[in-house]
């Protein structure tokens, strides 16, 4: 059994300086007036950041030139810099390695599809959940990201879509580095800003935002009570507690039944279908009987309010595990569906640049 901390929080390290995007509307107004500026400037700044996707006050043309430096220093510190950006899939998938002011690194991935444009963002630098098949989990947890550091990933992706592709960012998935519900309050604040209309946020539909978790059952219930309407994705990876204790060590705290009960609460509270993520690993969790058990348990717990995303395991350095053969994968899908549970295989993007699910490691 893996010994887990009583509280799933990051190590105590300094958070970045206060940024305009960390503040709620009232705090933004207060911060602006503290600088001796009229209150209406707060709405202007918000419109520049969330509406026009500008984070440098020197480029904010409706702000008097004489105060831009002061505003930049007080409210718009440079939080992130690009270390490296690499692409694959004919340029449709791009992974960015970010470095924060304290040297912390993490990654995000922008993916263009025919009908949507999705950014996979990080909520923590590293991850403390220690799942053995995930490169991020094996690297350990460095620290939580601030709300503004999370939002900067969204703003940058939105600006890239607009400037380079004449398009719009449509989907946000909290499936990058970290366990989002272990950085609960900052992730919650970021989600509210992502879904609020400009100038209060980026104006992305809550139905197009997915928050992933390995199964922090109390936090799932808490998120349900927020009634945000975002999609919940639960990384289950096996239906039985014996194997899940090893594959997803947090299972030692909250068993499969507890996680599915919390997922049902979320579905009932929001009316949204829960996504079950399942990394299919050759000879580990791909047995026909496990497919049957998964289908039975999900049908009993969630009925029609569930969908299984099968993820062919993506290779990580030093791992002896591999993806299941295609015939095994097809049989698994067939058996899950036989229990009345929707099941599809995820389209894997970015595998060759270590940008796919479970591969993010933020190596400089």
TrEMBL record:
Cofactor(s) the protein needs: [4Fe-4S] cluster
Location(s) in or outside the cell: Cytoplasm
Enzyme Commission (EC) number: 2.1.1.192
UniProt keyword terms in alphabetical order: 4Fe-4S, Cytoplasm, Disulfide bond, Iron, Iron-sulfur, Metal-binding, Methyltransferase, rRNA processing, S-adenosyl-L-methionine, Transferase, tRNA processing
Domain Radical SAM core: residue ranges: 113-351
Enzymatic class: transferase
Signal peptide: none
This protein's name: Probable dual-specificity RNA methyltransferase RlmN
Species name: Mycolicibacterium arenosum
């Amino acid at each position: 059994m893996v010994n887990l901390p009583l509280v799933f929080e990051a190590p105590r390290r300094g958070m970045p300086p206060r940024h305009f995007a960390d503040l709620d509307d009232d705090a933004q107004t207060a911060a602006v007036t503290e600088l001796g500026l009229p209150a209406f400037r707060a709405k202007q700044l918000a419109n520049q950041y969330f509406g026009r996707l500008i984070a440098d006050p020197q480029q904010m043309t409706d702000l008097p030139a004489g105060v831009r430096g002061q505003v930049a220093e007080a409210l718009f510190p440079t939080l992130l810099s690009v270390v490296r950006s690499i692409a694959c899939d004919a340029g449709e998938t791009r992974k960015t390695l970010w470095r924060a002011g304290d040297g912390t690194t993490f990654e995000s991935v922008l993916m263009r599809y025919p009908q949507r444009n999705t950014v996979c963002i990080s909520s923590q630098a590293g991850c403390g959940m220690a799942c053995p098949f995930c490169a991020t989990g094996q690297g350990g947890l460095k620290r939580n990201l601030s709300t503004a550091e999370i939002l900067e990933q969204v703003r940058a992706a939105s600006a890239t879509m607009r400037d380079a592709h004449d398009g719009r960012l449509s989907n946000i998935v909290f499936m990058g580095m970290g366990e989002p519900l272990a950085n609960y309050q900052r992730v919650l604040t970021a989600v509210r800003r992502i879904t609020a209309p400009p100038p209060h946020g980026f104006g992305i539909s809550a139905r197009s935002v997915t928050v992933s978790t390995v199964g922090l059952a109390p936090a799932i219930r808490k998120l349900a009570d927020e009634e945000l309407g975002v999609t919940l994705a639960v990384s289950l990876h096996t239906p039985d507690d014996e194997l899940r204790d090893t594959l997803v060590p947090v299972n030692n705290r909250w068993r499969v039944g507890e996680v599915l009960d919390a997922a049902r609460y979320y579905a009932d509270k929001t009316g949204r279908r829960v996504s079950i993520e399942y990394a299919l690993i050759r000879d580990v969790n791909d047995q026909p009987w496990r497919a049957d058990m998964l289908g039975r348990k999900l049908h009993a717990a969630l009925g029609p309010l569930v969908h299984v995303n099968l993820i062919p395991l993506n290779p990580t350095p030093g791992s002896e595990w591999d993806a299941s053969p295609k015939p095994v994968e097809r049989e698994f899908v067939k058996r899950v569906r036989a229990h009345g549970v929707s099941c599809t295989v995820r389209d894997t993007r970015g595998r060759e640049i270590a940008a796919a699910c479970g591969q993010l490691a933020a190596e400089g």
